[in-house]
Design a protein that fits this description.
Largest sheet: 8 strands, antiparallel, barrel
Radius of gyration: 32 Å
CATH topology of the largest domain: Porin
CATH class of the largest domain: Mainly Beta
Low-confidence stretches: 1-16, 78-83, 492-504
CATH architecture of the largest domain: Beta Barrel
Structural class: alpha+beta
Number of domains: 4
Strand content: over 45%
CATH superfamily of the largest domain: outer membrane protein from Thermus thermophilus HB27
Mean pLDDT: 82
């Protein structure tokens, strides 16, 4: 038995052979039929508008050859068939065969409605009226209820809030294989907007739906390319303007997939992601890109797949300032984390010392702007400007003065200029350190909030013994060290400038 096992272990590798799989490349546009589904018959008018949006965005993306309604009617006329209104799902396969389209998108409106809702200020007034009615006792409540009932009856068929319309839209776009009639993929879009008249509110909803549809259509037909040449951080990739490619498009680069034969069965083992490339220049059928990040060698022949979700980056750091013994923990979200010009927004918690040598609680928020002077793959050095706002909390001297003690606060603005260092630890983690200097600061007076007799919040000045208010001097050196974490293809990305221009 042992001999048989040893012989099997020796022969098994001989049954396995591996070869590199050529990457799939998007060579032509997808011919696509777009129609409203029969399930949308109840909402035929809005179904036509949403279907038009899907067709327009598919055309604008440049990767689809869209068969529009007018073109389709001409084709159907030649075949002595008719096309009108909403399409039965069972007819779509036959229509696709005539139109020579392999796939179709069926647009289904799941829910649509418009109704007026009371503005927020009117809701507040209603709450005050109810409060007064309660104070007036049972008779006041009954009287108000009778009056409201009469008004409701008179305005039963009248829109009370014609300038504050709430519009809700929920739809589904389903991709169908026209050969088999099977559903291949689907996505849903749900939008709600409140404000304006019916037309204005509907336009807001449709504008938001347009952007969502555009992003989802990219996901339905991702562009696949290939590295042609690599020169330092610059690469040449296939695909260009002919497939609707734009500057700023991101591609995920992977090592080639391999095909292995185990016995009589062939399996494909996908390659590993090795980097991210951003398109910088375009020709008709090729593009030049810049490697934003890589953690392995990138070579000609490596496959590249469009990354529609963008790059999400967040971080956690420890801060220390010498001027006021400022210590704390900061959470940050980064903007353009891998480009030469970037920034971040941050929120921090900590403590600092004031002129009385008391330790005060500090809530810190603001933003950073930085420009990378040296921007290599594993290391970067940048000039930075930090614009933090600090809300400092501490008790006043009310108790010492024979009054109630109050928790008071002051807002302080203390810009910091300095340098920023970034070192790549692995594919998705960086070590980030900053050194800066605070030159000046502005600080508001200490105060606290207190409700008056009407329940309104009023600002009150802090109480200090001998009018000796504590001061804070944050000028001095600041140090921050932390980690930044990256997520690639992080869901639906933000629209590009060209997207925003088209969606205005």
């Amino acid at each position: 038995m042992k001999k048989i096992i040893l012989l099997s272990l020796f022969l098994f590798p001989l049954c396995i052979s591996a070869q590199e799989v050529q990457p799939k490349i998007t060579l032509e546009k997808m011919r696509l039929l777009i129609l409203p589904s029969t399930a949308s018959e109840r909402y035929e008018e809005i179904a036509d508008r949403v279907t038009a949006i899907v067709a327009t965005e598919a055309t604008r993306l440049g990767r689809f050859e869209v068969i529009d309604r007018n073109h389709l009617e001409a084709i159907m006329g030649e075949q002595a068939l008719q096309l009108s209104g909403i399409i039965n799902d069972s007819d779509v396969v036959e229509i696709g065969k005539v139109a020579a389209a392999p796939e179709a998108l069926l647009v289904t409106i799941l829910n649509f409605g418009q109704k007026g809702v009371p503005p927020e200020d009117e809701e507040e007034e209603d709450k005050k009226d109810r409060k007064k009615a309660r104070e007036a006792g049972l008779l006041g409540i009954i009287a108000k209820g009778v009056v409201d009932a009469v008004i409701d009856k008179e305005l039963e068929n009248v829109e009370r809030y014609p300038n504050n319309i709430q519009t809700t839209l929920s739809c589904e776009v389903r991709k169908i294989d026209l050969e088999s009639g099977q559903s291949l993929d689907a996505f849903s879009v749900s939008i709600e907007h409140t404000g304006g008249n019916k037309t204005a509110s509907l336009n807001k909803v449709l504008n938001q739906a347009t952007w969502r549809v555009s992003q989802e259509l990219r996901e339905l037909y991702l562009l696949s390319s290939q590295i042609v040449d690599v020169r330092g951080r610059e690469v040449i990739l296939l695909l260009g303007q002919n497939m609707g490619l734009k500057k700023g498009t991101l591609f995920s680069i992977s090592s080639p997939s391999t095909k292995r034969t185990i016995g009589e069965r062939e399996i494909i083992i996908p390659g590993h992601q090795v980097g991210i490339v951003e398109v910088t220049e375009l020709s008709q059928d090729a593009n030049r890109g810049r490697i934003l990040r890589k953690w392995a060698v990138i070579e000609p022949g490596f496959p590249a797949v469009e990354s529609t979700g963008g790059i999400l980056a967040g971080g956690l750091g420890i801060k220390y300032g010498t001027g006021s013994t400022d210590m704390g923990l900061e959470f940050a979200g980064f903007i353009n984390p891998l480009r030469r010009l970037g920034g971040s927004v941050f929120l921090g918690l900590g403590t600092l010392k004031d002129s009385r040598d008391d330790t005060d609680f500090n809530l810190r928020f603001g933003g950073d702007i930085y420009f990378r002077l040296i921007n290599t793959i594993p290391f970067s050095l940048a000039a930075s400007l930090s614009l933090p706002f600090n809300i400092v909390f501490r008790p006043d001297d009310g108790e010492k003065m024979g009054e109630n003690e109050h928790t008071v606060n002051s807002i302080m603005f203390s810009p910091v200029v300095g340098g920023r260092f970034e070192i790549m630890l692995n594919s998705k983690t960086d070590l980030v350190a900053t050194v800066g200097y605070c030159l000046t600061s502005q600080m508001s007076k200490w105060d606290y909030s207190e409700e008056d007799n009407d329940g309104e919040s009023q600002s009150q000045q802090a109480i200090w013994e001998n009018s000796d208010a504590p001061d804070i001097d944050p000028t001095g050196l600041y140090f921050n060290i932390g980690l930044r974490f990256l997520i690639f293809n992080a869901g639906i990305g933000m629209p590009s400038f060209s997207d925003l221009r088209n969606f205005r």
